[in-house]
């Protein structure tokens, strides 16, 4: 008991400066503190790669020392989510500290982004989570409908935006398994329901007009599962400070237009007249969106009447495939261009189509948003690009990441929801010399749903209350 007391005092003294070492030490010394050597249960806790997120029962590992709950909560608050979930499974006392930490909203540890992907060898309701911090994968068992039957069209603040086989959309937190149905696809401006003789929706009709012109092309008819391959492209979940909840923004066809829905809405609100959008961010009730023409638009969503203005038209610096708008940690706004030189969309018989990112270029807007300058190096920062919310992170805060690199996944509509059996365009690109390295072996990933970055988050979505900003 004296050993436990001394160890506890040392840890409390060093807690502020050495929190991560403290957590590691706690796990290593736990058997000695208990008075017995490491056994199979503890080894399994440390090495088991299948994380059961929905904890319905606790794993009892002998008789553990009763560390005070407040000390456990301080220690757990310094862990990244995979370690936190494992810690919460050790015993009833640790699970109680884990639950209190989450329920009280006190867990705010910044998380290193992870890659979510499906594996052909797993059941249809299992999604893999690859931790860049730990360089290992975990398996997450998710609620119905099966994740392998869905398309993934976005990832923001710990939430995936998914599309099921009826082309309906859901928010899904793969860590907490919380799931929220979004307004029906039939409330999007361009979509109408077609009913069968029993009054059930059997098909969808989509019109091809934009906010500036009608279409000469007649409306098209699609089966329920077929629409999602033609309509939804990319989606984002943003904290909504005006309501204390959330807003979902959708880039969709025809012509990559914008619609949005706030918490409690029963329909999507269309944002005409422009189109061909590629990326967006949301800040202080203003939605900023960049399109293929290089126009940066600002939509004020705070009042009953939505207004829009063009902030800047960016000269076309590069012949690029995708454009991103990224909030930098130092306060600037970055415009990122993803360039693809290595591709073949019309291969010889027997060969596969492919589409490989070869270069990333970055520009920075000045404080007045009137001029841009080219940035040749991100120094101690990295980019995360793809169907996720575009991010620029500091390696000082996330030491597992490689400075001046871009971590990217597929972001081409043909690949994410179209050519699902083809080679995936994802990797880690060195911005100094454009050298590429793999994130995972391609043999580990199923092509559908498309792999995607996510920043894990344990906080629940309060539909009518507050959704706090990702730290």
UniProtKB/TrEMBL annotation:
Transmembrane segments: none annotated. InterPro entries: F-box-like_dom_sf (IPR036047), F-box_dom (IPR001810), KIB1-4_b-propeller (IPR005174). CDD domains: F-box_SF. Residues 61-110 form the F-box domain. SUPFAM superfamilies: F-box domain. Pfam families: Beta-prop_KIB1-4, F-box-like. This is F-box domain-containing protein.
């Amino acid at each position: 008991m004296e050993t436990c007391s001394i160890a506890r005092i040392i840890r409390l003294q060093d807690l502020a400066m050495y929190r991560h070492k403290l957590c590691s030490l706690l796990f290593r010394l736990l058997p000695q503190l208990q008075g017995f050597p490491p056994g199979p249960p503890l080894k399994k806790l440390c090495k088991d790669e299948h994380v059961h997120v929905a904890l319905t029962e606790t794993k009892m590992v002998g008789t553990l020392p009763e560390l005070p709950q407040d000390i456990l909560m301080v220690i757990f608050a310094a862990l990244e989510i995979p370690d936190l979930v494992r810690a919460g499974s050790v015993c009833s006392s640790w699970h109680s500290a884990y639950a209190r930490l989450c329920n009280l909203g006190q867990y705010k540890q910044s998380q290193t982004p992870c890659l979510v992907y499906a594996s052909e060898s797993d059941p249809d309701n299992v999604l893999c989570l690859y931790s860049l911090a730990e360089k290992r994968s975990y398996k997450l068992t998710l609620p119905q409908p099966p994740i392998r039957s869905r398309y993934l069209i976005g990832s923001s603040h710990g939430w995936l935006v998914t599309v099921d086989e009826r082309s309906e959309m859901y928010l899904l937190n793969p860590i907490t398994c919380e799931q929220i149905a979004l307004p029906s696809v039939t409330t999007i401006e361009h979509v109408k329901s077609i009913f069968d003789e029993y009054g059930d929706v059997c098909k969808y009709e989509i019109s091809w007009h934009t906010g500036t012109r009608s279409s000469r092309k007649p409306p098209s008819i699609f089966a329920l599962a077929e629409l999602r391959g033609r309509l939804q492209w990319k989606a984002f979940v943003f904290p909504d400070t005006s309501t204390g909840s959330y807003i979902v923004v959708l880039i969709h066809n025809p012509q990559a237009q914008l619609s949005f829905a706030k918490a409690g809405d029963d329909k999507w609100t269309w944002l005409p007249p422009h189109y061909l959008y590629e990326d967006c961010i949301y800040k202080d009730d203003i939605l900023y969106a960049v399109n293929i023409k290089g126009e940066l638009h600002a939509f004020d969503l705070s009042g009953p009447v939505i207004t829009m203005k063009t902030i800047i038209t960016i000269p076309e610096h590069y012949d690029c495939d995708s454009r991103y708008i990224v909030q930098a940690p130092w306060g600037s706004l970055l415009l990122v261009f993803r360039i693809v030189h290595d591709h073949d969309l019309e291969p010889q018989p027997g060969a596969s189509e492919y589409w490989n990112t070869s270069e990333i270029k970055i520009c920075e807007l000045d404080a007045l948003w009137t001029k841009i300058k080219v940035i040749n190096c991100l120094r101690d920062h990295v980019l995360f690009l793809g169907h996720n919310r575009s991010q620029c992170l500091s390696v000082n805060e996330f030491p597992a990441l490689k400075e001046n690199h871009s971590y990217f996944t597929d972001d081409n509509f043909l690949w994410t929801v179209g050519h699902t059996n083809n080679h995936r365009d994802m990797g880690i690109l060195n911005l100094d010399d454009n050298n590429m390295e793999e994130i995972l072996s391609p043999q580990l990933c199923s092509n559908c749903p498309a792999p995607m970055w996510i920043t894990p988050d344990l906080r629940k979505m309060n539909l009518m209350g507050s959704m706090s900003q990702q730290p």
